[in-house]
Amino acid sequence: SYQAMSKQRLLEIRKQICNPMTMKVTYYKEPVFIHQGHMQWLWDMDGKRYLDLFAGVATVSVGHCNPRVTEAAVKQLEHLWHTTAIYIHPQIQEYAEKLASLLPEPLKVVYLTNSGSEANDLAMLMARVHTGNHDVITLRGSYHGGSPLAIGLTSNAAYKYPVASGFGCHNTMCPDVFRGVWGGNQCRDSPVQTIRECSCSPGHCQANGRYIEQMKEMFATTVPNRIAAFFGEPIQGVGGAVQYPKSFLKDTYKLVREKGGICIADEVQTGFGRTGSHFWGFQAHDVMPDIVTMAKGIGNGFPMGAVVTTEEIAGSFAKGVHFNTFGGNPVACAIGSSVLDTIAEDGLQENCAVVGTYLLTELAKLRDKHEIVGDVRGKGLMIGVEMVTDKVSRVPLPKEAMAEIFEDVKDMGVLIGTGGLYGQTFRIKPPMCITKEDVDFFLAVFDQALQNYETRR
Ligand code: PMP
């Protein structure tokens, strides 16, 4: 069995024949050999337990092997795995209705996929078909997928290849008020804000205006007069929990629509209650997208994705035939349905709000205590801790230093993630069922790891 294989052998296979590139993002000097999971906990092959605060990049929403979801999956596995979309199976209809009921009007038509990249590919195609335009805009630092189409949306060189891709894809400045050129020290840094607000002048955020000017400049210079779509994550995930200034998305949606484009919210990381105050990340921005794409948390780790759009856009798209062999298979739908029930019945969105706000507030104290913690931000259980060499220069903490702290946190029993364009941000996006006690444990571990680093320095 795989357990009988030596760690050495497993590592050799991984490095040689099993998508060796991923070793680059496996980060740890001593890789973790994961063996089993239960809710917010993971166990390695030696039986050591970890508190999982990364959840497979915000994917495990209701807990590893959540017994209720496992039961739903097993029940369905015993009945039917697959047919084809040409038959009617109750599971898919029931699930589509349940999912659509969680979105505001007019977002009502559901297409099921198997991943986030696939969902974004489909959304891009829909936008182009519906508008008759080609050009698509994203924000720098964004991650929207690694498939040949979605890689063009992704605006992070680490995930790009020197091949022809991204035809018709353009990016504009990400309004990052911590690291970007505007906002900076003047932006209020209360960690529990919905969005970042700049206090440059009362009631008006200058940073937002400046970044919107950049968007306008891009419209004047880079794209034709009519575009297909804007894709935006409500909070950047891979980018390092980057939050935009107040009204940035609202103003952007307006400009995009003036250019004939539609607006797409990528909720792959922010959806399903993770941000606490709302079920969908876009709702905190007071905008109404034309298409919402989702994946990750939708299936609690089971490969699933979805695109939800309006009847009007679905009508344009119906001029052709779109088919997806595995999208919406009965097993995925049974799991998806059970995930939605679990979020509702276990109050997990509320838990994200309460536990997430507590975590953000306490992390802000660590920011004030440690010179190398530059910024604490996020919402609910979608959190970023940006590390710097010092608070004045804000130079990103070098990779080696990040790795040391990261390794130390792991050795003390907590798994977190890293992200950001320079790998300078710790990412915390745990299963949505974590408790205040878990948070206290992590805070003690993180504080200790920071102290250890500072002592060694
Ligand atoms: N969108 C966002 C915001 C993501 O974070 C990701 C994955 N990191 C994707 C899309 C792509 O999802 P997948 O890996 O399932 O293709």
Automatic annotation (TrEMBL):
<dbReference type="GO" id="GO:0019481">
    <property type="term" value="P:L-alanine catabolic process, by transamination"/>
</dbReference>
<dbReference type="GO" id="GO:0047305">
    <property type="term" value="F:(R)-3-amino-2-methylpropionate-pyruvate transaminase activity"/>
</dbReference>
<keyword id="KW-0809">Transit peptide</keyword>
<dbReference type="GO" id="GO:0009436">
    <property type="term" value="P:glyoxylate catabolic process"/>
</dbReference>
<dbReference type="GO" id="GO:0030170">
    <property type="term" value="F:pyridoxal phosphate binding"/>
</dbReference>
<keyword id="KW-0032">Aminotransferase</keyword>
<comment type="function">
    <text>Multifunctional aminotransferase with a broad substrate specificity. Catalyzes the conversion of glyoxylate to glycine using alanine as the amino donor. Catalyzes metabolism of not L- but the D-isomer of D-beta-aminoisobutyric acid to generate 2-methyl-3-oxopropanoate and alanine. Catalyzes the transfer of the amino group from beta-alanine to pyruvate to yield L-alanine and 3-oxopropanoate. Can metabolize NG-monomethyl-L-arginine (NMMA), asymmetric NG,NG-dimethyl-L-arginine (ADMA) and symmetric NG,N'G-dimethyl-L-arginine (SDMA).</text>
</comment>
<comment type="similarity">
    <text>Belongs to the class-III pyridoxal-phosphate-dependent aminotransferase family.</text>
</comment>
<keyword id="KW-0496">Mitochondrion</keyword>
<keyword id="KW-0663">Pyridoxal phosphate</keyword>
<keyword id="KW-0808">Transferase</keyword>
<dbReference type="GO" id="GO:0005739">
    <property type="term" value="C:mitochondrion"/>
</dbReference>
<dbReference type="GO" id="GO:0016223">
    <property type="term" value="F:beta-alanine:pyruvate transaminase activity"/>
</dbReference>
<protein>
    <recommendedName>
        <fullName>Alanine--glyoxylate aminotransferase 2, mitochondrial</fullName>
        <ecNumber>2.6.1.18</ecNumber>
        <ecNumber>2.6.1.40</ecNumber>
        <ecNumber>2.6.1.44</ecNumber>
    </recommendedName>
</protein>
<dbReference type="GO" id="GO:0008453">
    <property type="term" value="F:alanine-glyoxylate transaminase activity"/>
</dbReference>
<comment type="subunit">
    <text>Homotetramer.</text>
</comment>
